[in-house]
């Protein structure tokens, strides 16, 4: 073999090798002492405004129907307004500061902090195992050696934090009926009424031997507005981004199921009238290879949290304001977050070349994000609510959307107020349910 051939082989081997193969046993041991079982700092902050984590509420009793607000009797500790926002600037995401500059009536009511994240003991056990055995490929496209828990509870790279968000605990399966709205010029426009089943095979208890690399699945049918009634979509997200998301759609007018050539990056999503990109679902979703990622560190930030308050009104219109969600029904708390920045790689394309994410240390759910366009303008304020679900147990990813800081319009996905049931935990459906073939009889109208 020539020297050139040897060099080529060496380069290929280096590229194929994982960049990190977990943390040391000593570092993982912190999950039993100074860190929570999922990797957050167990202690509170210096002034006590963030309390110590003590385990979170755990109830295995199933919740049927609408979800209550366990903190309904609490009053805000203080409110942040356009008049005093500068005083709290160090506790606000940059896009939230921009919201105060754009809207004099924008308001953030800050409540007592409750560290309510919890998970079953088997998820804690798997997280501890993942800490030393999980690895992330050099290009951050694939997680190996992880199952049934947070893959990187002691993260060293920005990409690990984002994978933790993607693989955050959400229970193995659930059902949701919801509405998706576009609000523009103060007018609420129904984009979709959806009925969806979800599952996370990555979190099937005691099924690691059967895991086939699909981490998340959805099967969704649209019933309104009339022009979209009968539309259906099935999606499957892999633990290896190079495999790529698999997405099938059924369009009634065509009477056929079609596989989308790409359902990632800045490709618009059908259910949001094209105003949310696939990688803006739940603030961020899917492949990360178009960005260079940087771990800024951890900071204290006011974020939406324990958001059951917004589920209480009976009408969607009650929670949808002209330019943003009704502040009267929002709950914000002070929490520690991981701050991650993404900058577009040279030669890559995306409508949002720069993004910054704020991910809760307890749940790993990214609660807020900032986005900039190619001109360097701050254009979007992304938000993601989490609901306290003791039956899960823990926090469930909830409504999400984006405020457009340029046009004043916004998207609100997964609004549940007019639904009889709000996030019903279910038994996982068979994998065959989440296939293109399964849509053939489902979407016909």
Describe the structure.
With 445 residues, the protein is mainly beta. The chain has one domain: Lipoprotein localisation LolA/LolB/LppX (outer membrane lipoprotein receptor (LolB), chain A, Clam). It contains five helices and 19 strands. The strands form three sheets. Strands 6, 7, 8, 9, 10, 11, 12, 13, 14, 15, 16, 17, 18 and 19 form a 14-stranded antiparallel beta sheet that branches. A hairpin with a 7-residue loop joins strand 9 and strand 10. The longest helix is centred in the N-terminal third of the chain and has 14 residues, at 3-16. It starts with a helix and ends in a 20-residue tail after the last strand. Mean pLDDT is 92; it is low at 1-18.
CATH hierarchy, class: Mainly Beta
Range of strand content: 25-35%
CATH architecture: Clam
Number of structural domains: 1
Helix percent band: 10-25%
Average pLDDT reading: 92
**CATH homologous superfamily title:** Lipoprotein localisation LolA/LolB/LppX
By CATH, the topology is outer membrane lipoprotein receptor (LolB), chain A
Q: What's the order of the H and E elements?
A: HEHEHEHEEHEEEEEEEEEEEEEE
List keywords for this structure.
14-stranded antiparallel sheet, disordered N terminus, three-stranded antiparallel sheet, outer membrane lipoprotein receptor (LolB), chain A, 11% helix, 445 residues
